[in-house]
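Sharing a chain and its predicted structure for anyone who wants a worked example. Both blocks are below, sequence first, tokens second.
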Amino acid sequence: MSEMINIKINGVPVQARAGETVLNAAVSAGIEIPNLCYMRSLAPYGACGMCVVETSVSPKLMRACSATVSEGMEINTESERVLKARKLVLELMMGDHDGDCVAPCVLNCPAHTNCQKYLAEIADGDYDTAMETIREKITLPASIGRVCPHPCETACRRQHVEEPISICFLKGFAADSVYKNRLPVPKTEKPTGKSVGIIGGGPAGLTAAYQLAKSGHSVVIYDKMPKAGGMLRYGIPEYRLPKAVLDREIEVVTAMGVEIRTNCEIGKDIDFEQVRKSHDAVLVANGAWQSMALRCPGEDLEGVFGGIDFLREVALGGKPAIGRKTAIVGGGNTAMDACRTAVRLGAEEVSIIYRRTRAEMPAEDIEIEEAEEEGVIFRFLTNPAEILGKDGRVTGVKLQVMKLGEPDERGRRAPVPVEGEFIELPLDSIIIAAGQKNDPAGFDALPKTQKGTVAADEHFFTTSLEGVFAAGDVTNRGAGIAVEAIAEANAAAKAIDAYLLGMELTYKEPVLSRREVENIDFTVYEKRARAVMPQRAAAERRNDFKEINLGFSEDTARAEAARCLKCGCHDYGDCRLIKYADQYDTDCKKFSGDFHTRFTETALRVIERNQNKCILCNLCVRTCENEAKKGILGLVGRGFDTVIKPEFKGIDIETVCRDCLKCADACPTGALKIICDDK
């Protein structure tokens, strides 16, 4: 047995075996020294340069994987000089690392739903697992899969081949497939004895309730409306989101033990302070229920409706008196919902008034197209100057003709009036869908922003009141899309859970590798058209509120999901390279220049090798030679263009690799991917 000697690591006395490496001595003492090319079972190689340390025996930095310990040696693994050297190594590596840690669709989803994973699961026909993947972030997948404006698809790389994948509808397909057979109630943790009151039963409130109940907390939702669902129920028409679908998803939440108290308005039926005293923590998620005003003459006339007010009245079973001719002011999805609802209520002429052109409309293209199919008239470059009336009732609107001015700092051209040019449009009613805001009544104690929204921390959604959190449309920036409210609710639920358990959370923007689109050759992919959602004909659907989309068939859904390019790295969770890059706050783009001209090869047939992610640590080569005893892999070329490639040697590589796979296990960067693991 080797002689034991005394050394110091970071000032702490440690006993080590004489002659062993600094790295092994540190590991034995429970101290991590970062490394990317080292395995204890292999001889030191020293390729990565990550394991450098300062020692008392040399003025130079030493590589801990090869330097050996000696009596009295003092080692510093965390000095400023060491950390600076490691960061430089990482920045050089990342500068030549051409890979996506996380798929662009995932990053562009406000809730960071793992779209890539659930698409693969749908493609495999595993809808139950896909549903669970989605519900890690999206509590209401069947509903959101019908109404989300899908920012994930905006970022989908498949658009550079032909068209983005229908990610949103596939989310709904997976959820519908599961709900058809069972109510998928998740398991909850052991009760914590802690109670949370949630004000608002919309997408944010329901999401937070789901996550907190799952963590074992007792949850009560207070909602002022007759039924929970928030804007999903009262702001989105039945033809887009059947309320039976929403009810099924809310049933999951209540089956988890969440209590929902409806017709319970803060400041009227119960005081905010009463809610605070009744619970260990409170989440304010009561949304934005007030329509924004235009501030133009005539807005107080009978026959003027707020967009959200109009949709809510219809959802409650009412039939607003809009008459034969109506117009909707606005260009967002609420305006589209309002105009298409007006068509279904029997209005003979329905117009959209929008002060910019169609190109600037924030509404989804499909919503605009469907509205046009249903007979809605679009009056672009017009803006209400005055709502006209007689005997206190709307008779029309005077429209200011507009033109687009110079682009602003964001490149958006502002509409400006054309002096002296007006149009008069006869109307029986007008619906203002120019935005919405929160109602502050009953929440005087809460801190507010200049916009009147609740001021909350942007990462943990805490407010200045002890134990009170806020999320969704009621906070900071105000009303947004449902998936943004859901994202905030997920973060708030995590923060509330930590608060209740006495834990402290910290936030740090993760360091990620992102591919540049111009470095990707999309011509290698076969073009396959995006699946088209089958719909009811416009002439039929405009007459009722039945759902207009008929849904994908199973074959269509699986084929559509299989179009995914699998942009994100399969090994992101275990990748040591990005772990260290994040730990050292690495600037991945600090060093730019020519990338290696590399490729993805499948010559090993059961293992895919992505040369763009390879850092030439040589672990796979050495593992194949010394652990597997096969020597199939080797370094090919010299200098900048060196790559690792297989040498066939006349053996059955597929059988050998299928029964081994040790090189893929050893790879620290996700450069090797098992593509056939059915041993």
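Comments welcome. Residues 4-78 form a domain with the Ubiquitin-like (UB roll) fold (CATH 3.10.20.740).
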